[in-house]
Amino acid sequence: MLKILKYAAIDIGSNAVRLLISSIVEEKNKPPRFKKTSLVRVPIRLGADVFINDEISKENTNRMLDAMLAFKLLMKTHRVDKYKACATSAMREANNGKEVSDLIKESTGITVDIIDGEEEATIIAATDLSNFIDKNKTYLYVDVGGGSTEFSVIYNGEKTASRSFKIGTVRLLNDIVKKETWLDLEQWVKQETKQHDSIEVIGSGGNINNIFKSSGKAAGKPLTYFYLTTYYNMLQSYSYEERITELNMNQDRADVIIPATRIYLSAMKWSGAKDIYVPKIGLADGIIKSMYKETILSHTKLK
Predict the structure, then answer these.
(1) What φ, ψ does residue 216 adopt, rounded to 5°?
(2) What is the pTM (predicted TM-score) of this model?
(3) Hey, which bits of the chain come out as E strands?
(4) What helix, strand, coil percent values describe the chain, rounded to 5?
(5) CA-CA to 287 of 20 to 30 Å: which in 62, 87, 124, 280?
(6) Whether 91 contacts 77, CB under 8 Å
(7) Element (H or E) spanning 301, and its range?
């Protein structure tokens, strides 16, 4: 017997706000299949407000309300069974973050969970990485966002260490990342990976997906440290306008892609990784998977 569920995840990030709608196909005696039905991304860039002025501006609050109302209507037309909305770095650091989430609830009925960095790392790591990893290898999982970057070490298929750092693309663009934070990150990566002879990086986030797509590599094949370094140098040789016109990038991608690449390269350098794998996963995928796991657990308990 075939059963299809529709779940939605709203990821309120520091650079963009996303709605992911997934179909979950359940068949008897088969593992569930997760299929992306729709992905909508709105580049509101809350971090540009919060990391400089400590609060979300009136203009961006109104844009958020419009986006959430649109997401609500999309979820309704897609007949979504269940949804979850999570806000990360920008919303949790904004003085008016709670106020904005209350406004969203009042205007749209959507409840927003403002999650901390550790919970964010846990949700991202909960994404079904078993489809992408070799249990005989050790990985450093790096998810670069606008306000923070989440790191996890995966050994023998299990997460052994995890931490969130306030180093993100929007923070770097606005030059508000302290030198101590970089040093802290470098020390953590070296400490957590030194006992492993060989390590590979798994990268997630819109920027590394963009780089991977432009590389023309087949799905499942890694990008090398040399390739990423060359690409980074090439990006810097173009102006912001040229990255839009000649490299065909969106306006809100053309500036953040350089600091994002710097984070991935730093993680590779400090861990000694020669390759970076780029599965198409992130916080929104993790939210869908964690919701589904919760549903399965609650059904099991009822029995």
Answers:
(1) 75, 10
(2) 0.89
(3) 2-12, 17-27, 33-42, 82-87, 112-114, 138-144, 149-155, 158-165, 200-204, 223-224, 275-277
(4) 50, 25, 30
(5) 62
(6) no
(7) helix 283-302
Helix segments in 194-282, DSSP class H:
206-215, 225-237, 240-245, 251-254, 257-271
Which CA distances in Å does 152 have to 10, 129, 164, 174, 243?
22, 12, 9, 26, 31
Residue 132 burial (C-beta neighbours within 10 Å; 0-12, 13-18, 19+): middle
Is-contact 273 141, C-beta < 8 A? no
Average pLDDT of the chain?
93
Q: How far is CA 256 from CA 39, 177, 240, in A?
A: 20, 14, 10
Check whether 278 has a pLDDT greater than 90: yes
For 173-221, the pLDDT digits (tens) are 999 999 999 999 999 999 999 999 899 999 999 999 999 999 999 988 9
